[in-house]
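Retro notes
What went well: the complex prediction finally ran end to end.
Inputs used:
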Amino acid sequence: MNTAFWIISIITVLGAVLAITLRNLVHCLLSLVVCFFGIAAHYFLLRAEFLGVAQILIYIGAVAVLILFAIMLTRHVTGMEGPRELGGKWWMGASTAGIIGVLLWWCVRREVLTAMWPSSEKAQGLVAVIGKALVSEWVVPFEALAVLLTAALVGAVVIALEEVVRKR
Amino acid sequence: METLYQLLISIKTDTPIGRWLGPVPDWWLRAVAIVVPVVLILAVFLTLFAFLTWVERKTLGRIQNRLGPNRVGPIGLFQPIADGLKILLKEDIVPRGADALCHFLAPVLFLTVPLMLFSVLPIGRGLIAVDLNIGILFVFAVGAASVLALFMGGWASRNKFSLLGAMRSMAQIVSYEVPTVLAAVVVLMAVSAAGKHGVGSLSTVSIVEAQAGGWVNVSGWFIFQPWGLVGFILFFIGTLAESARTPFDLPEAESEIVAGYHTEYSGFKFALFQMGEYLVMIAMSGFTVTMFLGGYLGPGVDLPRMGWLLSIFWFFAKLAVMIFIVILARGTWPRVRVDQLMGFAWKMLLPMALVNIVAFGLWFYLGSGPMGWAVSVALLIAAFALLTLGGTSTRLGKRTYRYSS
């Protein structure tokens, strides 16, 4: 358990570091995917399979692919390496990173480390537990989100349809 | 895996073989229980793949009024072996400008995807490598990750045609994933409706078991309900597109972009891509069978001893039928255009999938009697008619470029 944890952690952190240091944008993205996979592997290690699969589905299947699409629309798709220099506003990025870092550290200290986590034996039927919670305790936000996302999906299709319909 | 481990433990403790073997450590049995399913999956499905290439070439030959492969072995049966040997001996060419690491990793990653899919595919009663409680979600997650392998291959080749193929395959897989997942939602709803106290499950085994019962274990299949038939068609089209088979083989359209994302691949890496494509097709056909055609269920699977063998037979028989339909589609249909591809996914499959979910809801509350049948069939036909007659998705005509003109 501990060995697996360390191996996965090293791969995850390595992926994260490479994602911000490599110069080729597509390589950065692929390293980021390695990092996402590492996080998913951590969830699997904690027997939170649902969370792990959701991580793969959302972060790799959607977010990474979205970034890829964005890269494809730029000239970086050829794999050209961009300049590696600090822009004039580097201090803005640094201060943002600093604030987020402090906030995260504070949250972890205050909440995560002191929380009472269920043991992995109890979390066996995790999907069923999540499912039940979603349709009982959290039913209103869940349904609201579902309606919102479906509306967004249908709306996108309607926007795509629009011009053709007008022409007819 | 778990069942096999328990079986090995009981052999060790309760039988003379166990006493004869002496004190075997438990982790050793655990390792055997992991390795055996992996080896079985590799052996069964890779053999199936090799045989499938022969079947496909033979069928396509017949469709095109040829004989197909007929030189190596009786009726060309050893052709896959000859092909394999040839491709192993070929030179592995990496283009000078290629990104060597990504170029190497892409086919390997691409082949990993279907092999992971097989791990949650129940091929007989109690025959599944890992019965994950998130089975079907795992399938979609792994399938979504396959896009990246294709992109890596196409991008790392530094070839325009490869990149075009990679971009096409990404756009195609991402678009068709939405209706495919929504078509699968109906199955999960049906599983939870069939379960005790409305408790559903995402496990592939429970999806199969929810279709048990009825007339000789056949009438319970989801395909025999109105929403199941529509879901089956939607899911089947979606899997055709996701495994890039005709009529959705745009990522490797040979008349347009040479060979798409694997243009710059040769030798065994090319073979890995081909193998991956065929295995994805087998796996997705397998999941179509699992979700809509009753998986391993069929007449006689409840018999005490024969039942187990019959369940394996029924699964592979259905799988063969599904794969044959895919091959027939390749032999008889032309390729769609890119704009038709996208329009079909977003303006036809997606609305149908959403309507299908509503149809199942009505079916569930009205009961599976004549009332439920009438209402859900009427709703589905009305939606289909509206989309095809009044809509624009299937209209052929001059292609419009919205954002470039």
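What we learned: Residues 1-87 of chain B form one domain.
What to try next: split runs per interface for comparison.
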